């Protein structure tokens, strides 16, 4: 009896060891490749040698010294901010409207609003390319911003809808019964409650545009390429570590925003506010 | 919801409430207008118009483009490639993701949150950058080959890139979180009491896993697999950078037909096939598992 028990316990712990090792390996596979690019971008070598023989900032200097790269960076930042604003305003309005309406076909409308999440981006990219070609909008900043907003919108709608759903409806009703106008109710009751979700949606919207390649590849034109498009054009000649520096910049901006969001939410949670 | 608000409003007569309700409803409809305009003009309209191009050919309206897709070996091969790559990606994601999801789901909630965060970080990193990282790792003179030859395991560099191996290594890494999240969500809700019951009835660990735990986790397996399969069908960046000539997928052929061949008709037919496949699979997903689970999977992104 004791022997079999011990055997059993032993087998389980062996299983556990294998499970832990396997899980760690898979986690490394998920995260590891990213850890390679960072040291490469600080390499003193002229080629991609790993581990780098020494450290330098030469590739960042090369990146900052090239008007092509900096112009693309500035354009992508501007684009991200515009997309963020458009997506948050339009998306919040859609989520708020849908939360207060009951009509046949609402499920279908929701599905259409969320469908850019699952429709392959290549389809949107070529379709919008054909449209912009006819309207002579290739290379137009605002046209691209609006196309990116389509991709960013579902994130805002999902997040804000979820916040509206968990919100206590009685609060809105209480405000109304105390004589608040609908606008006042929204401004002083609803908005503060959904603000954390709107902030999260804003970050998602920015990063969606900041990382987006396909739509920009087709519609941003050669002279007004975004940062991902420039990276795409140069990535195949991958002898030059400047690319690694650009990659670090792209990832750095996204992760910085993610960290900001986490901090904001930690603080909100500590202050007893609502979580997203 | 609008109705309950009307019912709570202090105005008594039925007519007045109706009037007020309608005015309110009108305002809510107005809030939807910008979103509808945006999606109508820059999403639904251009896609519908583009798809219609697939029915045009020199001889007027016809199905010639679709016939080409099926009969020209070059094109039909791309369709087959896409299916095979998507299926392989899904299977590999399941094999790698299932144990990891199980591991994370059975940790204390603090650690499970931490590791889940680690799984989610790649979501925030551009696919282009991740594919570039794989190029640096997998190339002929890449880090992996250099390392292996420096420790004497290989004498010739392994062909890890510009072939199917490279495509799968890259795609599986990108899609793995979409497999892990639905699996995790289901596994977290499986009561450990079942496993203990199986053990107390004398089932050895592996039998309890196979006959009790695995069937309970099937909704997660189905959700994750469908999600990964659907998302891999439209992949472009990773196969374009890490694949070879024989690894062309639908999205790459669409790009090539639009940018190089200027054959919009064929590109539109390809887009039609891709879109129909996606929608059919999504409808299956919704019918079998519900939209909420789909959002749960994608919403990993949106938490």
Can you describe this structure in just a few lines?
The complex is a heterodimer of chains A (276) and B (303). Chain A is mainly alpha-helical and 276 residues long. Chain A has one domain: MetI-like fold (Orthogonal Bundle), CATH 1.10.3720.10.
Q: How would you describe the overall organization of this protein?
A:
The complex is a heterodimer of chains A (276) and B (303). Chain A is mainly α and 276 residues long. Chain A has a single domain, classed as MetI-like (MetI-like fold), CATH 1.10.3720. Chain A has eleven helices and no strands. Chain B is an all-alpha fold and 303 residues long. Helix content of chain B is 78%, strand content 1%. Chain B has 14 helices and two strands, in the order ααββαααααααααααα. The N terminus of chain B is likely disordered. Chains A and B meet through helix 1, helix 3, helix 4, helix 5 and helix 6 of A and helix 1, helix 2, helix 4, helix 5 and helix 6 of B.
List the helices and strands and how they pair.
The complex is a heterodimer of chains A (276) and B (303).
Chain A: H1 2-41, H2 58-65, H3 67-100, H4 106-114, H5 121-134, H6 141-166, H7 169-177, H8 182-211, H9 214-219, H10 227-234, H11 242-270
Helix pairs in contact in A: 1-11, 2-11, 3-6, 3-8, 3-10, 6-8, 7-8, 8-11, 10-11
Chain B: H1 2-8, H2 14-52, E1 56-57, E2 60-61, H3 64-71, H4 73-105, H5 109-120, H6 127-138, H7 143-150, H8 164-188, H9 192-200, H10 205-233, H11 237-242, H12 250-259, H13 264-289, H14 291-302
Antiparallel strand pairs in B: 1-2
Helix pairs in contact in B: 1-2, 3-4, 3-13, 4-8, 4-10, 6-8, 8-10, 8-14, 9-10, 10-13, 12-13, 13-14
């Amino acid at each position: 009896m004791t022997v079999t028990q011990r055997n059993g316990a032993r087998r389980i712990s062996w299983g556990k060891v294998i499970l832990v090792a396997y899980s760690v390996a898979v986690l490394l596979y998920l995260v590891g490749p990213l850890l390679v690019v960072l040291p490469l971008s600080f390499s003193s070598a002229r080629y991609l040698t790993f581990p780098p023989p020494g450290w330098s900032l030469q590739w960042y200097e090369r990146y900052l010294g090239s008007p092509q790269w900096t112009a693309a960076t500035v354009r992508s930042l501007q684009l991200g901010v515009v997309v963020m604003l458009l997506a948050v305003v339009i998306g919040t309005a859609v989520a708020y409207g849908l939360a207060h309406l009951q009509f046949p076909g609402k499920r279908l409308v929701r599905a259409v609003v969320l469908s850019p999440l699952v429709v392959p981006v290549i389809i949107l990219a070529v379709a919008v390319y054909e449209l912009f070609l006819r309207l002579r909008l290739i290379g137009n900043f605002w046209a691209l911003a609006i196309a990116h907003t389509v991709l960013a919108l579902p994130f805002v709608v999902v997040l804000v809808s979820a916040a509206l759903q968990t919100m206590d409806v009685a609060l809105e009703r209480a405000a109304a019964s105390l004589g608040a106008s609908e606008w006042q109710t929204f401004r002083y009751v609803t908005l503060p409650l959904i603000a954390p979700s709107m902030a999260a949606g804003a970050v998602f919207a920015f990063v969606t545009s900041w990382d987006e390649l396909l739509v920009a590849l087709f519609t941003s034109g050669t002279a007004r390429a975004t940062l991902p498009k420039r990276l795409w054009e140069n990535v195949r000649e991958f002898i030059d570590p400047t690319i690694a520096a650009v990659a670090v910049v792209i990832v750095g901006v996204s992760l910085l925003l993610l960290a900001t969001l986490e901090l904001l939410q930690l603080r909100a949670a500590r202050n007893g506010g609502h979580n997203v | 919801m609008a109705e309950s608000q009307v019912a709570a409003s202090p105005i008594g007569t039925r007519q007045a409430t109706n009037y007020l309700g309608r005015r309110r409803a009108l305002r809510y409809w107005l809030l939807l207008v910008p979103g509808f305009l945006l999606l109508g003009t820059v999403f639904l309209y251009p896609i519908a118009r583009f798809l219609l191009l697939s029915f045009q050919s020199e001889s007027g309206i016809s199905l010639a483009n679709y016939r080409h897709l099926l009969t020209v070996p070059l094109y039909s091969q791309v369709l087959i490639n896409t299916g095979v790559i998507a299926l392989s990606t899904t299977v590999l994601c399941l094999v790698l993701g299932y144990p990891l999801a199980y591991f994370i789901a059975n940790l204390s909630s603090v650690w499970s949150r931490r590791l889940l965060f680690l799984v989610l970080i790649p979501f925030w990193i551009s696919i282009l950058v991740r594919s570039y990282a794989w190029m640096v790792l997998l190339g002929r003179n890449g880090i992996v080959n250099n390392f292996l030859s420096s420790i004497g395991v290989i004498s010739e560099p392994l062909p890890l890139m510009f072939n199917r191996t490279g495509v799968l290594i890259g795609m599986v890494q990108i899609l793995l979180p979409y497999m892990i999240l639905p699996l995790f969500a289901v596994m977290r809700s499986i009561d450990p009491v079942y496993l203990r019951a199986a053990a107390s009835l004398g089932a050895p660990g592996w039998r309890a896993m196979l006959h009790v735990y695995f069937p309970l986790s099937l909704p997660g397996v189905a959700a994750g697999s469908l999600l990964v399969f659907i998302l891999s069908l439209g992949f472009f960046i990773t196969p374009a950078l890490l694949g070879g000539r024989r690894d062309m997928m639908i999205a790459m052929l669409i790009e090539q037909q639009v940018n190089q061949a200027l054959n919009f008709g064929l590109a539109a037919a390809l887009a039609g096939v891709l879109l129909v496949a996606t929608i059919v699979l999504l409808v299956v997903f919704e019918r079998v598992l519900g939209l909420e689970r789909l959002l749960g999977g994608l919403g990993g992104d949106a938490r």
